[in-house]
Amino acid sequence: MKIQKLILAFTISLFFVLSAQAQDKPSPAETAEGEAAGAKITIKYSSPAVKGRTIWGDLVPFGKIWRAGANDATTFTTTKDITVEGQKLAAGTYSFFVIPGESTSTFVFNKVAKQWGTYTYDDKQDVLRVQVSSQQSSSLEERLVYEVKGDSFEIRWEYGKAAAKIGA
Prior knowledge:
There is one protein chain. The chain is 13% helix and 48% strand. The chain has one domain (27-167). Strands 1-2-3-6-7-8-9-4-5 form a 9-stranded antiparallel beta sheet, with no helix packed on it. It is globular. The protein is mainly beta.
């Protein structure tokens, strides 16, 4: 009887520990969805937190390819052909990367949709690269956020943000 109580107490304790850890994921999976240029746009990403770190130019170096989230590479899906910053992007799912810069960043759409980070990234598989303006924000965005707007999509994290225009 005593052993059964110990096993029950251990099992309950383990359940609470695992539940607490599951709720505090360091980079939870997120999805941003919206309509732009008549297409449904879906961006799937893992959302890391700032946690007091300097992000741009430090944790995420300027001038180097970044998976645009945590864990798996971020994916960008469009249900119809669109333009991004005036350049054609065919309907489909792409991995999405960013080459951050202080005033200008490059958004990269790569045809290998399923990748872990940038470990197997091959720029020969890029289907589109566009230059966008990098801006500073006055308010802290603790977690990485993507937002699909009527004519654009935006990425925000820490004090930095960048957006790309979407057209038909």
